[in-house]
Amino acid sequence: MISKFIFNAVKTLDPEGTTSISVTDDDTDKILFLSNPKNITVEQIIDKIPEVEAEDASQEYARNRKAEYDALDQFEMQYDDEINGTTTWKDAIAEIKTKWPKDNSGPV
After folding, report:
1. How many alpha carbons lie under 13 Å from residue 52 in its C-beta half-sphere?
2. What is the mean pLDDT of residues 93-103?
3. Which value, to the nearest 10 degrees, does the dihedral of the CA atoms of residues 38, 44, 45, 50 take?
4. CA 106, 63, 9, 25 torsion: positive or negative?
5. What one-character-per-residue DSSP string does the chain give?
6. pLDDT by residue (tens digit) across 30-85?
7. Residues 2-15 as b or e (16 or more Cβ within 10 Å = b)
């Protein structure tokens, strides 16, 4: 799992994507630079990991919401609401947003 944060730390340090690495066994001691025109160090990557982890954690609510949004047949719900004068779709969206608040305190 740490590999995800290692790769995201490299992306943060090199937004142009010119640095390429390989990681073995999720181990920061086993980072191999395949391309490193920005001269990024392993220490810079390790220092950036907590920031990347915090950003990832702050978006947990969005991932949870998306999973539930994707499970809805939203276009059909909207169409049915229009025809039937109901608010089923709006109610479902509001329920998901309430369940997964932006402060990541969900599920509520």
Report:
1. 19
2. 97
3. -140
4. positive
5. -HHHHHHHHHHHH-TT---EEEESTT-GGGEEEEE-TT---HHHHHHHHHHHHHHHHHTHHHHHHHHHHHHS-HHHHHHHHHHHT--HHHHHHHHHHHHS-TTS----
6. 999 999 999 999 999 999 999 999 999 999 999 999 999 999 999 999 999 999 99
7. ebebbebbbeebbe
